[in-house]
Amino acid sequence: MKDEQGRDYDVVIIHYSICILIRDYVPRYLRKSLRAFKGIKIQVIQDEYRWVNRMMREMVHLGIDGILSLVDKDKLDRVYHLPELKDVLKVSSLAGYVSNEWVGLDSPPTASRSKHLIYRGNHLPYWLGHAAREKTTLTERYLENLDGRDLVIDLSSDPKDRIYGEDWLGFMQSGKAVVGLEGGASIFDFDESAEKDVSRFLSENPRATYEQVHARFLSSVEGNVDYRMITPRSFESIAMKTVQVGYEGEYSGILRAWEHYIPLKRDFSNANEVCGLLKDDEYLQKMADHAYREVIESGKFGEERLGLGIDSMIEYLVKMKKDSFHRSD
Questions:
Q1: 100-186+226-297 — its CATH code?
Q2: pTM for the whole structure
Q3: Residue 127, helix vs strand vs coil
Q4: What confidence tens digit (pLDDT) does each residue in 207-226 have?
Q5: CB-based burial of residue 155 (10 Å sphere; 0-12 exposed, 13-18 middle, 19+ buried)?
Q6: Contact 65, 317 (CB under 8 A)
């Protein structure tokens, strides 16, 4: 594989938006070139709960040297368990980092914002398990439990209410607070049987509830891999000084309850307390400023960290290849 000047590349990094299983992304000629490439090959992967076994086999076929994953480091070998991947470098990463464009944004003060709580979500398939179902039902549950509490709320998971581009920035800065949630899924569909079985059943039984589907097809694999993490949307919210209200979670060890976000019990048992805080502009401003200083202004989670991490992977893999070459001599 060569650049425009005809020079050989030293490293190929496959971005997570390019699925190596789909020929529209990696046609046959490119697949053949990738397999023959003798330099460093790194696969960056997200949403890795789907097509797991096929992805592993394709990485083996292509001769991937390093995997940059969202799986926790203590679970990487359990997920990427093929013997042929034993010596592949596996590194755990965040789903996103703080863009330099978010640092120093001119954000309106909390008191000037017109809405107490905002959110835009989406509907996820049943076969991703309880974690995904929690996201799908989020809007409905918040509206059910927070309605009639003298709050200005703008929450929706309806596709027609999605907001894009420059309008998204305005939306995020219209809320004193935004609903926050960990990303991920609670089922890893290694052999794709969960997706296939659920899809087939729902095509024949379109009125089946999530609970019925889960009991029939998913209970045996629920929680087979704990795959939850902080999302780029959390960083974005903090950068815009919009306080997050979210279910209690780990948030990749970055966010702490009552310090960086307002924790809401999953049974909404502390809803009265949370609603009171949503009306306290001074409290919200202090939390927003504190989270901004610790998470954004500190630079601890800037996009440079991703670059340094990939540089370290490359340096390590180059050394490993050199050591392997000398041993073979």
A1: 3.40.50.2000
A2: 0.91
A3: helix
A4: 999 999 999 999 999 999 99
A5: buried
A6: yes
